[in-house]
Predict the structure.
Amino acid sequence: MVSRRLIRKNKTIDWFSEIYLQLLAERGVMPIIVPIAEATKGILDEYLKDYDGMLMMEGGDIDPQYYHENYDLTKLDEYDPLKDEIEITCLRHAFAANKPILGFCRGVQLINVLHGGKIYNDVHLEIPNPVLHINYENYDSHRHKVILEEGTPLFEWYGQKELMVNTYHHQGIKVLGKGLIPMAHAEDGLIEGVYNPAHSFLVGLQFHPERMLSEYKGNQKVFDAFTDAVKHR
Ligand SMILES: [Mn+2]
């Protein structure tokens, strides 16, 4: 898991959504957080020799160079080339080593890029008649519908065809990467969940089960499935 650098009260802080730490620790998995620091690059290879799985969380926009598009970098939100570089190094390693991978929000977008897919720079501008994917006034209470695909791990975990999910993203999967299977989509057609059946465990969700834990039993099952894969390697 890689941290996120934010400016708070004019100071740079390394931030991490602590609910992930709790959910993993509750399942007997000790999370290790990789800091966004220049020096991390020099020691990353050593640490990538011994780990059991990779969780990629939310964050700012991915540099479009990683999906071969030219875009005005000044238009990106929270552009952090060092975070991009560190996360993509980690993900490529976990992918090549067939280690369990779970991604949320930016994490699913990174997974898509890893598979050669492309990203919408702004879903609300580029998708015709988009549903609201982010409510800037209130991230936590926002919900929109997703429709699950039967026969996928996501459907197995939730056991129902439709969910109302918490999302807060302005980017999203535009062209699905090779080898990824869609598991859920919003009513505007945007893919909100993917997996790669050829990998030991590789799941990406655009929505946030960790922020709506009391609403569906399936939310916990997402983390059960990931940590089971991590522990049984
Ligand atoms: Mn959404």
